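Customer escalation, tier 2.

The customer says the design service returned an amino acid string that "doesn't look like it belongs to this structure." They asked us to rerun it and document both sides in this ticket. The original structure tokens are below, unchanged.
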């Protein structure tokens, strides 16, 4: 049985209290809400915080509020997001993405904010300590208790996915981030120094280790979705080996706003699990100003697949995963095409 290392636990009394504790604890402090990502990582000694700060019980993070759009607290459970009637009606891509995460038991624990900040994954990283020790670790998770990451002849740490690369290629595996990016979401980050509001796409960096741009002492407290009317259609498609539990090896989220005559007035397509961050396909703008025809869908799907760079770092063969990008993008758009 794997056991987590010793740690101190602080049940935060408020978001401000959590932010102060996070700042005072420095690099040895981490937040926990559902714990479905952090706890397994602690047991595998990938993350070993000395201080764990609980925020799951904070009511201010557990609300879904109406307004100009919809605001969802960072500690709202994934099962609650998937079942909320407002999300189901106006933002079906998010409802589907949240409902496809792992299993019912995990969705009843895991939170939306936690899924957005999900640790990147890799075949060489998500293993037991002993397994990783046998290959002399990797640059993302050096050994503890005196162990060191495997190094190349010039002394640099090695990424086993691309041994000559200076960076880590662990992959983003969040389901909800692509859906929220397609829907144009913004987030609120709170620290002991104040708060800031940013577009969700600015949260992510294309690096398997430094995959989040937020400061270590910032807390993702809320997700804001802009108003959606009947003209907006959205969906999320997920590729994985099994029909439940597994992380995505490809996620495709699409949101399209239709105008008179079926002409596209706005479109955002996002790829997940094919890089160290979700990819907002820049050619999405090319769909605007014309009907969403079969020809337009096929042309766009080909362009979108060019942005996918899956590597040998997750389940299934990476070349086949890249081919499936085109199929899944086309399938998601055809679903929206026929749903009007």
């Amino acid at each position: 049985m794997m056991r987590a290392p010793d740690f101190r636990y602080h049940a935060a009394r408020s978001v401000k209290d959590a932010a102060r504790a996070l700042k005072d604890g420095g690099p040895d402090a981490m937040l926990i809400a559902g714990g479905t990502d952090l706890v397994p990582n602690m047991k595998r000694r990938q993350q070993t915080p000395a201080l764990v700060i609980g925020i799951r019980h904070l009511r201010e993070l557990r609300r879904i509020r109406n307004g100009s759009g919809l605001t969802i607290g960072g500690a709202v459970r994934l099962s609650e997001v998937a079942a909320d009637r407002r999300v189901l009606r106006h933002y079906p891509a998010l409802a589907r993405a949240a409902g496809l995460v792992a299993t019912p038991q995990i969705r009843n624990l895991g939170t939306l904010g936690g899924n957005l900040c999900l640790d990147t994954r890799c075949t060489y990283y998500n293993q037991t300590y002993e397994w990783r020790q046998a290959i002399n670790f990797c640059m993302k998770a050096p050994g503890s208790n005196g162990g060191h990451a495997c190094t190349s002849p010039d002394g640099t740490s090695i990424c086993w996915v691309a041994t000559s690369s200076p960076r880590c290629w662990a992959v983003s595996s969040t389901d909800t981030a692509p859906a929220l990016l397609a829907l144009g979401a913004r987030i609120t980050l709170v620290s002991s120094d104040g708060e800031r509001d940013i577009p969700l796409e600015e949260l992510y960096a294309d690096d398997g280790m430094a995959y989040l741009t937020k400061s270590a002492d910032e807390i993702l407290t809320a997700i804001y979705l802009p108003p959606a009317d009947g003209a907006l259609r959205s969906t999320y498609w997920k590729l994985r080996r099994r029909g439940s539990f597994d992380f995505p090896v490809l996620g495709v989220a699409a949101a399209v706003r239709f105008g008179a005559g079926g002409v596209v007035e706005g479109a955002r397509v996002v790829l997940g699990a094919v890089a160290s961050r979700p990819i907002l396909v820049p050619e999405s703008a090319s769909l605007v100003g014309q009907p969403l025809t079969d020809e337009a869908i096929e042309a766009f799907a080909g362009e979108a697949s060019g942005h996918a760079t899956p590597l040998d770092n997750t389940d299934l063969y990476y070349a086949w995963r890249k081919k499936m990008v085109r199929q899944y993008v086309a399938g998601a758009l055809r679903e929206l095409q026929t749903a009007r």
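Tier 2 assessment: The sequence is consistent with the input. The chain has a mean pLDDT of 95. The chain has eleven helices and twelve strands. Sent an explanation to the customer and offered a walkthrough call.
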